[in-house]
Amino acid sequence: MPREQNTTNNMTESDELMNKYGEPLRYDRNFKGPRQKDRSCTDVPCLLLFILFLAGWGFIAHYAIKNGDLNKLMVPTDSLNRKCGIDSSVLNKKYLFFFNLSQCIDPLVPLTGCQTPQVCVESCPKESFIWDTMKDRPFDELKSKLICITEETYSTIHTKNDIERAIENQLCARWYIKSAPFLNRCMFEFSEKMCEFIPSFLLRGGRSRRDLLQLAGNASSEPEIQAQALVLNMPQYLVAPPTPDSKQHAEIVEEPIVQCRRRLNEAVIKEKMMQTDTRLAKLVGNMVAHFYNGTHDAQRLGEEIVEDLVNSWSVILVALLCTLIASLVFIALMRWLSAPILWFSIIGVLVGLLVGIYYTIRQYTHWKKTPTVPNHGLNLQSTVTNVLQDQSTWLYLSIFLGACFIIILLLVVVLRKRIRIAIALTKEGSKAVSTVISTVFFPIFSWILFIVAITFAIGVGLYLGSIGQSSYRMVQRLTANGEPTKEQCRCDGLAINYTIGSACDPQIFQQNCYNPQASTSGFFQQTQRVPCANTTCSFEKIENPRLVQWFIVYNVFGFLWLSFFISAFSDMVLAATFARWYWTFKKRDVPYFTLTGAFFQTAFYHLGTVAFGSLILAICRMIRLILEYIDNKLKKYDNSVTRAILCCMRCFFWLLETFLKFLNRNAYIMCAIHGKNFCSSAKDSFNLIMRNFLRVVTLDKVTDFLFFLSKMLLTAGSGVATYYFLANNPAIVQLHYKEVPTAVVVIAAFLISSVFFGVYSMAVDTLFLCFLEDCERNDGTPEKPYFMSKQLMKILGKKNKLPPRQRRK
């Protein structure tokens, strides 16, 4: 009877432990971690909320596309800040003409704007004009072809000398060629090989690229061919030559679509590559011109850079493929190289600090024995010289370096055992990534989702921003010195109440406002009103209705929530994959489709947890954006107390978001291990981390330092190998600058290695929490064996006491 009672007590304890830890007491060779088999859906209400939120977002997108008009946002603006076809002075001029369109082929244009003069015109030029080759023609013909920045400039031209003077002052265009409107911008009439540069989704009617293979070659004269070749910076043989049926196509059409219908089956890849090379050279040349003296030299340098890239593209691809393979091999070798690399790095830092201490003490002794008169110049060089010749500078610097040396040395001595644990876990992470190699390429899936989310949010935001009534304001044009003009603009009739700064209507302004000083009248003559030239009714903004404003806020929050959701989903899938690897007692028994299983496990059971964690981060980020908006609105008040409060709040929420990201990451790992909801997982992970705080801090810093060194090593190796190959094989690839392809390889190699080590970092974090769970739950007995590697057990002084048949091989 006592024996039966003892058995009953044991079973009761077993049941209690099963309920507490969710794991069997006895050793099971197929054990895959706590609650691996009996999972259930977690945080279902939050998942339903997320689905309803996405449905609401979809409704807003439908509403925005139905009621929005992107043409309102794409209306061009000329150099005088007039909206073409909208402002009062250019109501009948809806097209934008560029004096020199080639200057707009610049990657900095979105930031700096196109620097060439721009003017609104009624229609794009229907024929070409080159002043330098046509100045001998009659004055009336030349004046009729002029396109000037303002009507006043055009009206003051009476002779050819006036034309020459206006052109030299960039008040009138020196040359232009036949153009066609594209998005209300006058674009060059394209040659027959330029249609492929027009994205099909930008062309009206949704026509496919097949319908737009070639633009009609309408250049009907040699000057037009010369001008087109000049502007496009390409040889004349690439510009469409005159054709027998040129006269039939002499009349310019309204859309480039119509120009792209001839020679549908004549796509020549080689010539397109040559044209792409030329256009790209123009773009790079304009970019280099910002940092390089001389436009001609910059253009030549840009052409040489592009030529080097085109000639070495095969070398670049091979170098990046080698970097990809090297990253995989490096991760595999980290199980043996992590300890030497880390200890070598630590010793190198300490040696470097010793060298710095020696040098600073030497400089301090030198300048203490060599007093100098300070340089009294007010420039930066004099200030730096005075600082470097001051003995106090070197004294304080030596003290700082000495303190850093002592602190790092003490940390290494005190935390040497924990550093060894971090190194061992890094080796375990290498084994996990090498075993489930598909995890390295999983971030590509996340990138695709991110691109879709960004595109959707931007599109909805643009459509929402175009909904509403346009507001106009009566303003005066500014002079070159930034001062308003003194023009007297009088309004009567329906515009009698119009004043500078007040709201107005362009149509009413144009009909009822005039310049009384410029108007003429006589005894037998009716008064002839002259419209105001420097005072206009200008577009100010689109006033969105209150509902649309809330929709915009909804769209911003939706993007934040969805982006954090995608990132969290990726983290949980990787965490489930590496947790499954750790909790498999014999690592060779890890299933082949571990990543696929983790993907479906997360998708079927834990999307609610992912939605919950991402919602918290989205709310925190939204609060930060609101604080930035408030700070921007309150800048004009210049209140120091308000600025201090906002600064503290911004700092607090930044720290809060950083902490929440750390907490969420560990909560996802615990959810992947145990299958609990977000709150329980966050609580368990936080308590587990606090119980092992020193280990966590040590591991985090050590692994970050190790991964940084690894990325630098791979990046530097790729760059050096590429440069060495190009320098020693000039017969294979002939280049102007070997640094150009080398720089491309270095940048791309750093991005590739960052992706690899991002997955590696997730593996180490997951294995670390599994390691801490393993240490607290198991004791090495046959009933509760350790799942950690033999190296970790050796560092901790632990071992498994398993029967011979069940020992790890």
UniProtKB/TrEMBL annotation:
It comes from Drosophila willistoni. Keywords: Glycoprotein, Membrane, Transmembrane, Transmembrane helix. This is CTL-like protein 2. One of its GO terms (cellular component) is membrane. Its main location: membrane. The chain crosses the membrane at residues 44-65, 313-334, 341-361, 394-415, 436-464, 559-583, 604-626, 641-660, 705-726, 746-772. InterPro entries: Choline_transptr-like. PANTHER family: CHOLINE TRANSPORTER-LIKE (SLC FAMILY 44), CHOLINE TRANSPORTER-LIKE 2. GO terms for molecular function: transmembrane transporter activity. Belongs to the CTL (choline transporter-like) family. It is a multi-pass membrane protein. It is found in: Membrane. It comes from the Eukaryota.
